[in-house]
Amino acid sequence: MRAMRENDLHQHIFSRNTSLPERVTLGPGDDMGGVRIDGGQVLVTVDQLADGVHVDLRHTPLEKVGRKAITRNLSDVAAMAAVPVAAVVAVSLPRDFGEARANTLFDVMRDTASHYDCPLIGGDISMWDHPLLIAVTILARPPASGRCLGRQGARVGDVICVTGWLGGSLHALEGRVHHLDFEPRLRTAWALAEADPPPTAMIDLSDGLASDLARLCGASGVGAELWADRLPISPAARAASEHDGRAPWVHAVADGEDYELCFALPTAGAGPSLPGEIEGVPITAVGQVTAAGNGPRLTLRRPDGQVEALSESGWEHRGS
Amino acid sequence: MRAMRENDLHQHIFSRNTSLPERVTLGPGDDMGGVRIDGGQVLVTVDQLADGVHVDLRHTPLEKVGRKAITRNLSDVAAMAAVPVAAVVAVSLPRDFGEARANTLFDVMRDTASHYDCPLIGGDISMWDHPLLIAVTILARPPASGRCLGRQGARVGDVICVTGWLGGSLHALEGRVHHLDFEPRLRTAWALAEADPPPTAMIDLSDGLASDLARLCGASGVGAELWADRLPISPAARAASEHDGRAPWVHAVADGEDYELCFALPTAGAGPSLPGEIEGVPITAVGQVTAAGNGPRLTLRRPDGQVEALSESGWEHRGS
Q1: Of A276, A286, B35, B163, which has fewest CB within 10 angstroms of its CB?
Q2: Residue to substitute from B73, B127, B317, interface A, most A β-carbons within 10 A
Q3: A262 Rama class: left (phi>0) / alpha (psi -120 to 50) / beta
Q4: pLDDT of B146-192, one tens digit each?
């Protein structure tokens, strides 16, 4: 039996939530929801971090767990080019977790949130006989430009760009593991929102380039071709490749938890004039937006020139 | 070894979160946090519902589970007299939950939220090999009066009032179980915020009158005396009393999950002029605010006239 897919469940919720009040500026289906309160727009996102799914407490220091609970959610905020304002956390602690460790965990979450000017202003703590689960909610406001960058809006011909390097996020290299140590791309996102022209659509890479780009394309009603030989392959992806024998570009396309940004840029702002880096973060053109035909939504031009279909769900987060 | 106490953990977080940015209007320690965005005030609260802790999926219909996930959080919104604006949910589903049941759960959460004009605008779904856990975050705005009602502010001499009836929330009576079927007291709270005089402090009753009143008194720096013979004892508390032999008033003081409001009213607005009901919900004076001396924070005047200390933590939510 095919397992439940998170995408299907999301689809179910979205499809029936069609009569939202006027104050809702962004309904379900993007990296953040949005609502107008007292004339101002408030954005909100919630994300979960579970022991055994997103981290493994047997191997991951508590400091990294607490940090990731916050930064992973800030990556969603960056995806909209929004500015974090405040956070609340809900934590279910195993009953035998211990008070000292609980305090360490909360200290790290609070300090990480403060570091990104996103103070922890409330929370809920509960105890149970199951693994640690943390749900972080972040409130944010639109960037200075007033323009949030959503998943909708990519147009045929736009160049697809990514920040940073892709792949191998779970692979330890020189004492660093990207999925625990990454920097949410807030500053880069704010700079992009101010750029002329700004991206037409943006998403953060949590489930992997193929899966997340498929979401952006689905929301925009377009397709995309990725260029395998242009992908910014991370050193960790190369190391992982040596380890498992899969080509480095497969890791870059398929691995999850990059927490980089993927965005579509009108060609006027791309090509020769594509910025090589923004706020110290490299920007790489990795493909192009295509028309959504009857064929596969995503294709990949392999290094040997062959073009093949990319499964949209091939690398969906499998929950462990 | 004494188990970790949720109160201690909360205390730890609050005590170290002293340097909050100016935009934070309500830090941790009340029923909701608050932050100023674009000039308007946004309130936020998060709450968890866990299978085996707050509900039991072996006996509780999914419709009731989804409803309670939302209404329990709306009770926190009512505690501040705030007006719900939007909600997001984070759900960890057991891998074998089944898609049809997942859809039912999400439908009920979405419909319940809509019913209270609090549309679901986003969420996160994850799957794992452990029980269902739902974290609901609600955004709200201050009431029309502009005055949110917090836990701080109760003054010596104020009358302590509660809405509705207390006790026996888990006890089934005539096919109804209060903790699944209760109505969050939003309308009553809004009317109270408009009253002249309004309450000086308010909290909702989730862990039980003794525990929650102790929190209100702690935040206000006062004590309180409860009058056992004035407590509005619910029929379910009487039934539970017949079942376990504890006095009905003990159930009213100690049982959790009433989801009623408890508030302090200046005596000018109490006594003979105490409103008997608001928006169809009975209001009962159950005690009085006292000075915080060296003795116990809470005392109880028993039906026989004897006054005894009430343990502040005696009925803390034990997590199952």
Answers
A1: A276
A2: B127
A3: beta
A4: 889 999 999 999 999 999 999 999 999 998 999 999 999 999 999 99
Cβ-defined contact of B139 to A37 (cutoff 8 Å): yes
The answer to whether the Cβ–Cβ distance between A4 and B99 falls below 8 Å is yes
* Interface contacts A/B by beta carbons within 8 Å: 244
What is the C-alpha to C-alpha distance for residues A185 and A163, in angstroms, rounded to an integer? Answer: 8
Cβ <8 Å between A88 and B46:
yes
Q: Which of A256, A273, A83, A245 shows the shortest CA–CA distance to A182?
A: A256
Q: Do B4 and A98 touch (CB under 8 A)?
A: yes
Nearest chain B residue to A22 by CA distance is: B119
CA nearest to A5, candidates B50, B93, B69, B131:
B93
On chain B, the residues whose CB falls within 8 A of the CB of A125 are 6, 9-10
- Please say whether the beta carbons of A128 and B52 come within 8 A: yes
CB contact under 8 A, A21 and B119: yes
Q: Please state, in angstroms and rounded to a whole number, the distance separating the CA atoms of residues B50 and B54.
A: 5
- Chain A CB contacts of B141 below 8 Å: 37-38
Would you say B156 and B202 are in contact if contact means Cβ atoms under 8 Å apart?
no
Rounded to whole angstroms, the Cα distance separating B230 from B310 reads 16
CB burial string B55-84: b at 16+ within 10 A, e below: beeeebebebbbbbbbbbbbbbbbbbbbbb
Q: Do residue B137 and residue A17 have CB atoms under 8 angstroms apart? A: no
Spatial distance between the Cα atoms of B55 and B115, rounded to a whole number of angstroms: 22
Q: What are the distances in angstroms from CA A161 to CA A32, A114, A304, A317, B250?
A: 21, 30, 21, 22, 65
CA distance B152 to B18: 17
Contact A47 B135 (CB under 8 A): no
Give 3-state DSSP helix, strand, coil % of chain A, rounded to 5: 30, 30, 40
Nearest partner of B87 among B137, B46, B47, judged by Cα: B137
pLDDT tens-digit readout, A99-137 = 999 999 999 999 999 999 999 999 999 999 999 999 999
pLDDT, one tens digit per residue, over B245-304 is: 999 999 999 999 999 999 999 987 655 567 789 989 999 999 999 999 877 889 999 989
A192 half-sphere exposure, CB direction, 13 A CA radius: 35
Of A17, A21, A107, the CB nearest to B16: A107
pLDDT in tens, A9-65: 666 665 666 678 899 998 888 889 999 998 889 999 999 999 999 999 999 999 999
Distance of residue B127 Cα from the nearest chain A Cα, in angstroms: 6
Unique residue bearing structure tokens 């202003």: A121
Cross-chain Cβ contact B122/A45 below 8 Å = yes
Average model confidence (pLDDT) across chain B: 90
DSSP A166: B
**pLDDT-above-90 percentage for chain B:** 78
Residues of A within 8 A of B19 (CB-CB) are: 114
Distance CA(A234)–CA(A38), nearest Å, equals 45
- Most B-contacting residue of A51, A125, A129, A139 (CB-CB within 10 A), to test interface: A125
Q: Are β-strands B222-227 and B159-163 bridged in parallel, bridged antiparallel, or unpaired?
A: unpaired
